[in-house]
């Protein structure tokens, strides 16, 4: 919840219009229990609200509820080659972990 501190500060600054996403589609890249998936997504939302995120000041949304996220990911996947990916340190690390 370390990131929440910064989120709370930004929502109080009128210079910013803040949007926060619960990245549930990102969670699908690791093993998960499909019976608990929706419950865990709601739990993250409850944690954000309990920490002080105010829906009157910030937009909080669930990634899977915005179809444009998947569409944009598709477009990126069509222009991101494996050769480009192999130059990214985070990609290299993930490949090492999965071997």
Automatic annotation (TrEMBL):
GO molecular function, one term: tryptophan-tRNA ligase activity
Transcription regulation recorded as keyword: no
Keywords, sorted A to Z: Aminoacyl-tRNA synthetase, ATP-binding, Ligase, Nucleotide-binding, Protein biosynthesis
Pfam families recorded: tRNA-synt_1b
Listed GO CC annotations: cytosol
Keyword ATP-binding: yes
Family matches, as SUPFAM superfamilies: Nucleotidylyl transferase (SSF52374)
InterPro entries per record: aa-tRNA-synth_Ic, Rossmann-like_a/b/a_fold, Trp-tRNA_synthetase
Protein name stated in the entry: Tryptophanyl-tRNA synthetase
Organism: Candidatus Amesbacteria bacterium GW2011_GWA2_47_11b
């Amino acid at each position: 919840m370390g990131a929440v501190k910064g989120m709370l500060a930004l929502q109080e600054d009128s210079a910013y219009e803040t949007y926060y996403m619960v990245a549930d589609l990102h969670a699908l890249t690791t093993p998960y229990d499909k019976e608990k998936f929706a419950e865990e997504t709601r739990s993250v939302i409850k944690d954000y609200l309990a920490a002080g995120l105010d829906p009157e000041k910030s937009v909080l949304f669930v990634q899977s509820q915005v179809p444009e996220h998947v569409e944009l990911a598709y477009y990126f996947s069509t222009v991101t080659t494996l050769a480009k990916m192999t130059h990214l340190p985070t990609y290299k690390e993930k490949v090492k972990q999965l071997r």
